[in-house]
Amino acid sequence: MKITFSRFYPAAAAVAALYFFGVFPSIGEMPTKTALSSKPSSAASEIHSDQKRGVLVLGSNSAQYDERNHFAYWNWDFEARRPGAYEVRLIYTSVSQKKMGLQFRLDEATTLKSYVYRSRKPDAADEFVIGRVRIPTKGKHHIRLLTGDKSKEPPFSIKGLKLVPVQESGEQLGQGLDGLIELHARNAVTHSEKMQYEHKVEKNCLGFWVHPEDWAEWNFHVSMPGKFKVTLVYGCGNKSGGSKVALLTSGDQTLKFTVKETGGFQNWEKLDLGTVNLNEEGSHQIVIQPLSKPGVAVMDISKVILTRVK
């Protein structure tokens, strides 16, 4: 079985601006750091990770458009199935040589500001990363997008928004001086409809894993390549044992295991899964993908530990 990994790079050649052009008020803070996620895919593999899982797409036809003399508003009302961190991408076409100012607002809390430039192909939609937001709760939310000019028809046409799951913490994951790599729940990208990072101190884990189609991903940097022992710190409640799960890494490596009950979803136990070879310095990925779920939930995950074998 061969597992391949690829990266997505934003299509528009643009950088985030710290300030809009004065006439619009600044509300909240603007995250300036965006994350790029890697996603596994293999047509021949028995293990399938849906790369679109958890992505929210809001089309222009589902928005209310309000056009003024020198600017325009787009308003979306949508239902979030879970809380989580997302990268906000604008889907658009533009044949104008001028940059367009944008202000994105989620509910009453988060505002992102940026400029977007001419799309690479006027007859094909481009994607531009506006920034990062966190949807705090499941349920109903509102997005307002303010553009510095008319934006429904050429020369600048908005086709919609895409909210793509990203790492919850925004941390850069690396390797300790002792060779140890710890991948905490807060460091995961949750490609999911229900599974999510639980913030509470007594939990601090990936939980609500009730759909086997949901999967988790960690991206990290290896500075000292070699062979690593893989240990999973997890919990599983009564009547939820028996799930079949696979851990996948780059380099055509898969470790399969069966989840056993631990007496509670936050009753943590360590499970040694085996070893993997991370033989190249640089970026690597680990994916945890359920294969079956006979019980109420798959498990909760506290962290994945990679211990370098000397």
Describe this structure in words.
The protein is mainly β and 310 residues long. It folds into 2 domains: 4-165, Jelly Rolls, CATH 2.60.120; 181-309, Galactose-binding domain-like (Jelly Rolls, Sandwich), CATH 2.60.120. Helices cover 0% and strands 51% of the residues. It has strands at 4-7, 38-41, 56-59, 64-67, 72-80, 84-94, 100-106, 110-116, 126-135, 139-147, 156-165, 181-184, 189-191, 196-198, 205-207, 215-222, 226-236, 244-249, 253-258, 264-278, 282-292, 300-309. It is elongated. The chain starts with a strand and ends with a strand.
Largest sheet: 5 strands, antiparallel
Secondary-structure content class = mainly beta
Number of DSSP strand runs: 22
Uncertain regions: pLDDT < 50 for 5+ in a row?
1-45
What order do the strands of the largest sheet run in, or round the barrel if closed?
A: 4-5-10-7-8
Q: Please give the count of helices.
A: 0
CATH architecture term of the largest domain: Sandwich
Helix content: under 10%
Oligomer: single chain
Overall body shape: elongated
User: How many domain modules?
Assistant: 2
